[in-house]
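Internal tracking record. Fields below are filled automatically when a chain is submitted to the structure queue. Please do not edit lines marked as system-generated. If the sequence contains nonstandard residues, flag them in the REMARKS field before resubmitting.
Queue: standard
Priority: normal
Entity type: single polypeptide chain
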Amino acid sequence: MGGAPPNNWLVPAILSIFCCWPLAIPAIIFATKVNAQWNIGDYAGADDAAKKAKMFSLIGIIVGVVWYVVVGLFYIFVFAAAATSASYSTY
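SYSTEM-GENERATED OUTPUT FOLLOWS
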């Protein structure tokens, strides 16, 4: 087959650690397998590992971004509710 190996998605896999580390671990594992499998001539295995690295990286990033948005909105609502609530004193 020859040519260049498929994109290994290593950089997005590493960056997904900051979003959702449980999904980043398999993404990094599959990303590091791409070039090794390509070099030994397992072109189908390299392509499969690249697809899995891409999938885990993108899902990890999406889950992380959604999580940060939900937590951010929660804090906004909690602080807004605390700021608008009446303060009562028992003195």
